[in-house]
Write a structure and sequence with these properties.
This protein is mostly beta strands. It has one domain (about 5-250): Acetoacetate decarboxylase-like, CATH 2.40.400. Helix content is about 10%, strand content about 50%. Strand 3 (about 60-75) and strand 4 form a beta hairpin. The protein is globular. The model is unreliable at about 1-15 and about 170-175 (pLDDT under 50).
Length: about 260
């Protein structure tokens, strides 16, 4: 069992952030680019797109994270309690957004597909992550999400471009997807219109990674503004990870 949050975490970039859960994650983090006016349609009225540093002003990144969580645990006081829950997820994320009141930059999650009931309920009730519980599976190098009747919702194919390497030897991956979601605040949107802020603390210290080329297909309308679309994701913004630590903070409703 790994140690629970400690003084080492308090000295990190997340300050005194308190975490509620942790998993290990095997999967892909890939960044695609959509027309800016299309991405705008995904946002609720409380949010607007920010300017992407060194980016094309006519386009905006969309990040997809898909794979399997395992070695899950929850934190209670000074205890880390293993749950042994394994589940798959597909996260659709919009990095570089800002609230109408000026808070940002942050990452907005307009849709998350999840394979576990409690994780889905908590993500919706407490974080506003727009989670939907659906079947998901890897078929070779293709990750597939379907509805309850077997209809295709989304699928993503990854093609490795290099051998696996220890992430720690290369520092933190300097990629749009990993950098955005691993460092920026995460925003969810509750049914009553409130925004909820939380943090994904991604740890690559003992993880492995490799650069990939990816294609992501949205095969049905799965949320506001998220309609069928096929995207080729640039290898410069795409990695596959194994053993990445993923922590989730407690929600903050002050937004």
């Amino acid at each position: 069992m790994e140690p629970s949050p400690s003084r080492r975490e308090a000295r990190s970039g997340f300050g005194k952030r308190s975490f509620v859960a942790e998993t290990r994650f095997d999967g892909a983090i890939v960044s695609c680019s959509w027309p800016r006016e299309v991405v705008t349609q995904v946002l609720p009225p409380a949010l607007r797109l920010d300017i992407v540093p060194n980016g094309d002003r006519n386009r905006h990144p969309i990040v997809f994270i898909f794979g399997e969580h395992y070695r899950s645990k929850v934190f209670f006081a000074s205890l880390a309690l293993p749950t042994d829950v394994r589940f798959r997820e597909l996260v659709i994320a919009v990095p570089f957004v800002r609230t109408r009141r000026g808070m940002g930059p942050a990452v907005f999650l307009p849709r998350v597909f999840s394979g576990e009931a409690v994780v889905t309920w908590s993500g919706n009730a407490h974080y506003g992550f727009a989670k939907r519980m659906v079947p998901m599976e890897w078929f070779g190098n293709t990750f597939v999400a379907t509805d309850e009747d077997g209809g295709l919702l989304a699928h993503a194919t990854v093609e490795p471009l290099e051998a696996w390497r220890p992430a720690a030897r290369n520092g933190r991956p300097g990629l749009v997807g990993a950098e955005s979601l691993g460092r920026l605040p995460i925003l969810g949107h509750l049914a009553d219109g409130r925004l909820v802020r939380s943090v994904f603390d991604w740890g690559f210290e003992d993880a492995w990674l490799r650069t990939v080329r990816a294609t992501v297909s949205i095969d049905a309308t799965v949320g506001q503004g998220i309609v069928p679309r096929r995207s080729n994701c640039a290898s410069a913004g795409c990695v596959e990870v194994a053993g990445m630590r993923w922590r989730l903070s407690w929600p903050d409703y002050a937004y």
